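A favour, since you know our structure tokens better than I do. Go ahead and set the record down below.
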Amino acid sequence: SLRVSNVGSAIANGPIQVVDFLPSQLSFVSALGIGWVCTASGQQVACMHPGPVVPGGRLPDITLTVFVASLPPPPSTTTQGGGTLLPIFNTAGIVAPGDLNPLNDIAIDPTDIVALPDLGISKTAVGSFTSRGQASYTITVTNIGSGPTTGVITVTDTLPASMDFVSASGAGWTCTV
């Protein structure tokens, strides 16, 4: 949510422009606000409002909706709700004619993105399968998400009626029938 307020002592005449520079982990979906016309190009979102804004007043908020991309593995181990927190910083600025104090025209919002695990599984037959003979499968579990797993991971493999279980093993796995 982007908010434009006039903290000065004079009317801020338009046009008033807000520019939001999205970090690389975010991509633009939409930007809406009453009286605002918004466009996006790459990581830059620009919104224009005709103004004016009276002293102590504010314009309608802009709601900026973004898509959170897949994130790289986290550099930290801070967790929340089963995911790892990855901080990103979103920066927005404002340009208005006659603005006398550019020091308060930039806002930086530190946002924690919860990086969650996303497990994938594959099952591959090893060797030849013959009637009344033994054969093997290799089951591989991979975390393709951006956060680490926590707790126990359970894999369930239901064999067809024509097969009988013989044994199962794997480094770090406890297998039961």
User: Anything to note?
Assistant: The beta strands are 16-21, 26-32, 37-41, 44-49, 63-68, 79-80, 83-95, 106-115, 119-126, 136-143. The two ends are 53 Å apart (CA to CA).
